[in-house]
Amino acid sequence: MTFWLNRNINKLNWRVILNMIGFALIALSGLLMLPVIVALRYREFHLLSPFLITIGVCALCGLFLSRLKVKRNAYFARDGMIAVGLVWICVSFFGCLPFYFSGQIPALVDCFFETVSGFTTTGATILTDIESLSKSLLFWRSFTHWIGGMGVLVFVLAFLPKNNEHTMHIMRAEVPGPTISKLVSRLKTTAMILYALYMALSVIELLFLLAGGMPLFDALCNTFGTAGTGGFAIYGASIGAYGSVYFEVVITVFMFLFGINFNLYFFLILRDFKPILKNEELRWYIGIVALSIVAITINILPLYHTLAESLRYSSFQVVSIITTTGYATADFNLWPTLSKMILFFLMVVGACAGSTGGGLKVTRLMIVLKKIKLNVQKLWHPHKVEAIMVDGKIVDKETVDQVMAFFGAWMILIAAATLVVALDDFDFETTLTAVYTCLGNVGPGLGLCGPTGSFALFSALSKIVLSLCMLLGRLEIYPILIFLFPLLEIDKRKPVLRRRRED
């Protein structure tokens, strides 16, 4: 086994992978300058040192790794996936250093958990007193959502000095969804278009929040959390701290918009409305949101004074949970069981593929349900030949198999992680939803880790496992699993079981 492991590791294009990590660390060092500006603005001079030390370490490591001489420029799917997995782990570790060096989050495990939660746009927090954190650290904490929303390496690819046709493997590993396609012929241009759309929507939301009277600092942090569908709030009461219907409506609308596949916005700009109208996933997404809002509004009506108030809280929370943003305007832990179960279901479903949201994705749910329907039909009509159709096109067998395998892997990971977290001996609701909310990149769960609670009460082991769940959820399992288990081929002495060589 050691021989097989070494053989497969040696086949990887490690210099290209290390180059990728180097470029990501250089980008991170540049992005860390923004919280430095915030520290200067709010006269938090004592925090300049933690940020500047982190910037220096990132820049030095990044320059060293990015300048390694590459013998083979080409790389393949496994190289791309391992590069993505390693980049996210490295960026999360280096990104947590300002929290650790400042001493405001003393434990390194807690710093790592908080930063992973930021970059993966989960929004789960170990902080019990959010307002006590300095402005610059609050800004960096929220800004990690915006960086991770579209993808760390998608950002790097937009400005990467070295990329070729094989960089599609990186896009495939990092952009959520069962399939990913280029918007235009050049991948670099595709990455730039995606970020242009992402920035444009972010700026529009920022302007709406400012127009309603929200302070600039608050508007920026809330925009970062909404755009990345992350949900880190700067107040313990989350968005409910503002008590403003206007802010809630604006954030609800933009959470919903950021949960839509970004490819559809590209078609919208081109005024090509046919793909948008034909998009089955979008119709399912709208339908699930609408039905959930109606059901919860009716269910929680006895708790509130009017139908309008009930609709206000239910619509915000439904959109927040299905897009895996995790903002809150009410303590849904106190809602009736039916409402909590609907929200739990939405945690699993998640937003659309190709959005900044997490979860299983609506398109995967569609394919799983259609696969079940097809299997039932075959029991009635064994000789009937029928394919799974999405958007009027046949879904190929490989994609269906990948979706079913992903769904199975998701369930196995939940079971395994739940057993480990159960060692902390918390109640069933807290234990199960903590794992679900981290793997789905949602943020708040139910019970002790609900919208008014935190993850501070979990042990160090549980926090590491939950951090891994967040990474697995954001990168959709395979990049991290391939990094953890590089033994991808059986020995050549067993040719029948040997994997097909990648192109």
Walk me through the structure.
This is TrkH family potassium uptake protein. The protein is an all-alpha fold. It is 63% helix and 1% strand. It has 23 helices and 2 strands. It has helices spanning 2-11, 14-31, 33-41, 48-66, 77-95, 97-102, 108-119, 135-150, 152-159, 168-174, 187-211, 216-227, 245-258, 262-269, 274-278, 280-300, 307-322, 337-349, 362-380, 397-421, 428-439, 460-474, 478-484, and strands at 389-390, 393-394. It has a two-stranded antiparallel ribbon. A hairpin with a 2-residue loop joins strand 1 and strand 2. Helix 9 (152-159) crosses helix 11. The longest helix is centred in the middle third of the chain and has 25 residues, at 187-211. The radius of gyration is 22 Å and the shape is globular. It starts with a helix and ends in a 19-residue tail after the last helix.
Q: Which series of helices and strands comes N to C?
A: HHHHHHHHHHHHHHHHHHHEEHHHH
> Roughly what percent helix?
55-70%
Structural class: mainly alpha
Spans where pLDDT lies below 50 across 5 or more residues: 1-6, 487-503
Largest sheet: 2 strands, antiparallel
Protein name: TrkH family potassium uptake protein
Question: What's the topology here?
Answer:
Blueprint: H1 2-11, H2 14-31, H3 33-41, H4 48-66, H5 77-95, H6 97-102, H7 108-119, H8 135-150, H9 152-159, H10 168-174, H11 187-211, H12 216-227, H13 245-258, H14 262-269, H15 274-278, H16 280-300, H17 307-322, H18 337-349, H19 362-380, E1 389-390, E2 393-394, H20 397-421, H21 428-439, H22 460-474, H23 478-484
Helix pairs in contact: 2-4, 2-5, 3-4, 3-8, 5-7, 5-10, 5-23, 7-8, 7-22, 8-12, 9-11, 11-12, 11-13, 11-14, 12-13, 13-17, 16-17, 16-18, 17-18, 19-20, 20-21, 20-22, 21-22
